[in-house]
């Protein structure tokens, strides 16, 4: 694996975050699933990020970003854009540190997630446009108001926080053969992949996308960030375009070893399997990662694989509709 010159530096940032974020950020369990292992023919380990504070891995990156703010940035407050989980993470991290947070979101975002953001003390501003346009407007408003904009993925310090997932993985099960990660803007897989290619280069990093919303996957195929019309998906946490200058793009080019697209039916089936066998409710993006693992199971027979269950924040009615 050939690293860009900044890759070792990013790994060092992740190591620092891993040491500095406790106890605010929980170490989530890595749970061996006997039933999913029997079903797939692989040794399946579930990284339980749905049990992280706010119900999502996003609290890691948000906490690392807030940890590194200077006094002036803290006093002015933060602006971010989010379909829900990142907003919740920034809102809680901000509340814990006494930093005011404003979250811009698409009007089509999950009402459950937006209500949760408000409950954590953040101001929520909804816009009637797509997620990428919301990000761009939030960044514009941050510049106008002289506040720091915190991207959900296009931020080195946020990526470093997400990478702590893989630091834990290597402590919990260092002999993994593959890790399956749902991908939206690429922040989580950038951090995870950076760690794994440093500490366990034989482990394959598999990026998983809904067939209905594969913008970054298609961009990787094209070799440049593209725009495309996406279809509706239950994996709302991974939906939307990617900023043209996103730092995640070159990192993903380096650290993703394979990609897999999954249908909405396959996502639903994965969500149902976790509920049936593990008694957990997970959101669509977490279902994407497991669906990808099940789809590629023939390639990893008898091998140890980890699936990142990245979040649980889904409306009950929507979940029940998916798994029935």
Element layout with pairings:
Layout: H1 7-20, E1 30-32, H2 34-40, E2 43-48, H3 58-67, H4 71-76, E3 78-81, H5 85-97, E4 101-106, H6 111-119, E5 123-127, H7 131-144, E6 148-150, H8 156-172, E7 178-182, H9 187-199, E8 204-210, H10 215-222, H11 248-255, E9 258-262, H12 264-278, H13 284-295, E10 304-309, H14 316-323
Parallel strand pairs: 2-10, 3-4, 3-6, 4-5, 7-8, 7-10, 8-9
Antiparallel strand pairs: 1-2
Summarize the structure in short.
With 324 residues, this protein is α/β, with parallel strands linked by helices. It contains 14 helices and ten strands. It has two domains: 7-56 and 156-323, Rossmann fold; 58-150, Rossmann fold (3-Layer(aba) Sandwich).
Task: Output the keywords.
324 residues; alpha/beta; Rossmann fold; 2 domains; 4-stranded parallel beta sheet
Commentary on this structure:
By secondary structure, the chain is α/β, with parallel strands linked by helices. It folds into 2 domains: 7-56 and 156-323, Rossmann fold (3-Layer(aba) Sandwich), CATH 3.40.50; 58-150, Rossmann fold (3-Layer(aba) Sandwich), CATH 3.40.50. The protein is 48% helix and 15% strand. The chain has helices at 7-20, 34-40, 58-67, 71-76, 85-97, 111-119, 131-144, 156-172, 187-199, 215-222, 248-255, 264-278, 284-295, 316-323, and strands at 30-32, 43-48, 78-81, 101-106, 123-127, 148-150, 178-182, 204-210, 258-262, 304-309. The model is unreliable at 1-5 (pLDDT under 50).
């Amino acid at each position: 694996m050939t690293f860009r010159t900044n890759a070792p530096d990013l790994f060092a940032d992740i190591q620092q975050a891993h040491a500095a974020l406790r106890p605010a950020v929980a170490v989530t369990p890595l749970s061996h699933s006997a039933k999913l292992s029997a079903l797939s023919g692989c040794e399946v380990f579930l990284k339980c990020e749905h049990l992280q504070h706010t119900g999502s891995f996003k609290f890691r990156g948000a906490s690392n970003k807030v940890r590194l703010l200077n006094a002036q940035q803290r006093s002015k407050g933060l602006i971010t854009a989010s379909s829900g989980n990142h907003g919740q993470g920034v809102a809680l991290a901000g509340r814990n540190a006494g930093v005011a947070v404003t979250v811009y979101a698409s009007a089509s975002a999950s009402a459950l997630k937006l209500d949760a953001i408000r409950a954590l003390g953040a101001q929520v501003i909804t816009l009637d446009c797509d997620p990428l346009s919301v990000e761009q407007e939030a960044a514009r408003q941050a510049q106008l108001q002289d506040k720091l904009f915190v991207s959900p993925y296009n931020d080195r310090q946020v990526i470093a926080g997400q990478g702590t997932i893989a630091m834990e993985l290597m402590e919990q099960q260092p002999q993994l053969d593959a890790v399956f990660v749902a991908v939206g803007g690429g922040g989580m897989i950038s951090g995870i992949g950076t760690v794994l290619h440093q500490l366990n280069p034989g482990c394959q990093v598999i990026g998983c996308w809904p067939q209905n919303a594969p913008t970054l996957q298609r961009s990787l195929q094209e070799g440049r960030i593209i725009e495309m019309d996406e279809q509706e998906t239950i994996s709302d946490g991974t939906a939307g375009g990617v900023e043209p200058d996103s730092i995640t793009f070159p990192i993903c080019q380096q650290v993703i070893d394979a990609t897999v697209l999954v249908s909405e039916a396959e996502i639903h089936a994965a969500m149902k399997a976790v509920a049936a066998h593990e008694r957990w409710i997970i959101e669509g993006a977490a279902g994407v990662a497991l669906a990808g693992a099940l789809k590629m199971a023939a390639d990893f027979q008898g091998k140890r694989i980890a699936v990142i269950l990245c979040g649980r924040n889904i409306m009950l009615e929507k979940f029940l509709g998916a798994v029935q």
